[in-house]
UniProtKB/TrEMBL annotation:
Region feature Disordered, mapped onto this chain: 135-162
Species of the source: Xenopus tropicalis
Gene: rwdd4
Listed name of the protein: MGC89285 protein
Domain RWD residues, every copy: 9-111
């Protein structure tokens, strides 16, 4: 019973502390998620913390299995989890969800120091390959467009939206017009 009271108090505290913080999500009454780092940050990661029945006397479950973390290597994830586990061991018996989230925020650079973002800035050879591939892809598209007549190109340009894409259903047959044309021919 005391564990549930502690959980209720911690839940209220978390809600008030993180009110309006987009990085914090309450996934359930005993399950929370926090994004460490900003959106678009290559070193950002998500931490999921779940409370078992015995929490805070028993350790919470900490996970980094969110899809958001797929760009992080298993070794870096394991390193982060082990450092968070050290904090759990030091704070066992007390409400520690806030402490764990803040530890991760304060130590983000250290926790992610071995993370290699999937960008091409670190490997100059990759830049060339990517650029070559994109040039090849665009030249193939241009080849297809060159086969169109001027009239076809004009019609196509009139249909393209601001993203350079054709609207959904642009080549669908208008069933009503089609049937009315077919029906009028049969009557004649």
């Amino acid at each position: 019973m005391a564990a549930n009271e502690d959980q209720e108090m911690e839940l209220e505290a978390l809600r008030s502390i993180y009110e309006g913080d987009d990085s914090f999500k309450e996934l359930g009454p005993t399950c929370f998620q926090y994004r460490v780092g900003d959106n678009g940050d290559s070193k950002a990661f998500l931490i999921d913390i779940s409370w078992p029945e015995t929490y805070p006397d028993g350790p919470p479950t900490i996970s980094m299995n969110a899809f958001f973390n797929n760009q992080i290597s298993p070794a870096v994830k394991q390193s982060i989890l082990s450092k968070l586990q050290e904090q759990v061991d030091a704070n066992l018996g007390t409400a520690m969800t806030y402490t764990l989230f803040e530890f991760a925020k304060d130590n983000k650079e250290d926790l992610m120091e071995n993370h290699q973002p999937h960008s091409n800035t670190n490997a100059p050879g990759n830049d060339i390959t990517v650029e070559t591939a994109s040039v090849t892809a665009t030249s193939k598209k241009k080849d297809k467009k060159e086969q169109l007549t001027k009239a076809q190109k004009r019609k196509l340009a009139d249909k393209i939206d601001h993203k350079g894409e054709l609207p959904r259903g642009w080549n669908w047959v208008d069933v009503i017009k089609h049937l009315s044309k077919t029906g009028s021919n049969e009557d004649d």
